[in-house]
Amino acid sequence: MTDLGWWGVPLGVLGGALRVSTPFLFVSLGECITEKSGRINLGLEGIMVMGAMAGYAVSLASGNPWLGVLAAGFAGLALGLLHGLICNLARVNDIAVGIGLMLFGTGFAFFLGKPYIQPKAPNLPAFSLGGWSELPQVQAALQVSPLLLIGIALAFALAWALCNTRWGLVLRMVGDSSDAARAMGYNVNLVRTLATAAGGLLAGVGGSFLSLYYPGSWTEGLSSGQGLMAVALVIFARWNPVYCFYAALMFGGAGSLGPALQSVGITSGYYLYNAAPYVLTLAIMLATCSPTRTLAGAPGELSIVR
Predict the structure, then answer these.
(1) Whether the Cβ atoms of residue 208 and residue 69 lie closer than 8 Å to each other
(2) Quick one: which of 25, 28, 114, 236 is 20 to 30 A from 46 by CA?
(3) Which of 204, 199, 179 is nearest to 83 (CA)?
């Protein structure tokens, strides 16, 4: 990047946004599905870490990173299903359950993942969007994973399905008014449980990206709070899957600001620049909170808007 001078900064931010946004995208899409049903899952951090560990372990054992992604999805599905079933019990708060799930998922993943800290598992393949340039720095910066393209396609498909399919309309009705859904003969608990499980699946896939592509190894504390930030990202995106993609790019760009500046020799305040995603999360929460107005697009059954 140093050969490019200051042009390396926007290039580094762009390349970092494409890489770092991928787990944000999958986790936020999963949480969008969950919250559309009227339930919030704060356990995404634990689900991501569990998915990262499961994906890395299966990739190491099988030699196939895509089997690792599949295993991560199933691990996330299991934890999401657990969250959904517990929340169906009487007088159970979904936020408290989510916090418990976060602690359980991270602790269980650390316990099971001890043997996988040193071994090197096969990583996901990558392709470069910088083929138009002969500069190796450009080609390296614009390398992306196929998971990003899958996530983008999923965001647009989900946005269409929520408005144009029966299950999408049922999901939105359950999230906006459980009484209306029951009057129509739908099982509210079943819909919410399936939505939470689907959200967990996508969060697990997002976790596999961390261990199998970027940074591409299994270590404790791998997700760095991305699961929790995804909840704020969904609020900022107004529960719109396509906006979740745009917001994920923004968060990814904020997360890559520090390394991009370091690549051109700016090391002073490095840790401050690395805190940009967390500062952005706080700014978004402040900007979207108001006692005088409701959140546009928020499902009516969400506990955060009641």
Answers:
(1) yes
(2) 236
(3) 199
Rounded to whole angstroms, the Cα distance separating 158 from 32 reads 10
CB 1 within 8 A of CB 128: no
Give the 3-state DSSP-derived string for 122-145, with helices as H, strands as E and coil as C: CCCCCEECCCCCCCHHHHHHCEEC
Query: According to the 3-state scheme, what is the secondary structure of 275-301?
Result: CHHHHHHHHHHHHHCCCCCCCCCCCCC
Of 201, 161, 167, 152, the C-alpha closest to 31 is 201
pLDDT per residue of the chain (306 residues) written in tens, 0 to 9: 445 555 556 777 787 788 888 999 999 999 999 999 999 999 999 999 999 999 999 999 999 999 999 999 999 999 999 999 999 998 898 999 999 999 999 999 999 999 998 889 999 998 877 666 666 666 666 788 999 999 999 999 999 999 999 999 999 999 999 999 999 999 999 999 999 999 999 999 999 999 999 888 898 878 878 888 888 889 888 899 999 999 999 888 887 777 766 666 666 666 777 777 778 777 877 776 666 655 677 888 886 555
290 Cβ contact list (under 8 Å, min separation 6):
none
Could you tell me the pTM of the whole model? 0.90
CA–CA dist 59, 70 (Å, integer):
10
* Domain definitions of the chain by residue range: 22-225
